[in-house]
């Protein structure tokens, strides 16, 4: 049973998404000013904040994603801004090397982060506006095996299609996706070293990054209202 307060928070998220999505369509000329209000209410009453995506799996994101594949619940994001997507989020994005494919990776850095290599021959650089750095969870994999930003470099934020919030590996093995900190390198604080680049946020101390908590807070009401494990299991091909 979903509590009334959860319903209110869910409705607030849905209304915010409806406004953002409709305004985005208005700005690119897909709808005109007279259609804007109708689009907002249509998205609010008829739309959902999530969709399911089946992935064929692989070792890169184990154990969140089973090597044999599974069904994921993906949270829609109208605006890919620092208030909607966070370092530590697991995201569904277009494959930078295969434009027709999609991959699951974790956000390690956003625009404004300085990327620092543990190879002195590599020059540090700062991620530009609307760029992000994504990594595989399985750090035992080499860059070519993991197929993440250590191999193909920064990714445009516009390639992100949503945040993965629930993973169904089998009918009896499923649960919410943990949005957590990723290994990063801050000035004077070496947490872990990637094979190539790690990241630190310019002018921000390591204790200021509470991104994973923000994602869980935003997604909690959405999961409570829209999660249907039985329906996900029916669509699971694993």
Automatic annotation (TrEMBL):
Coiled-coil boundaries: none
From its record, what is one biological process in GO terms? Answer: signal peptide processing
At the top level, the lineage of the source is: Eukaryota
**Gene Ontology MF term list:** serine-type endopeptidase activity
Stored SUPFAM superfamilies: LexA/Signal peptidase (SSF51306)
Q: Which CDD domains match?
A: S26_SPase_I
- Indicate what this protein is called per its UniProt record: Peptidase S24/S26A/S26B/S26C family protein
Q: What species does this protein belong to?
A: Miscanthus lutarioriparius
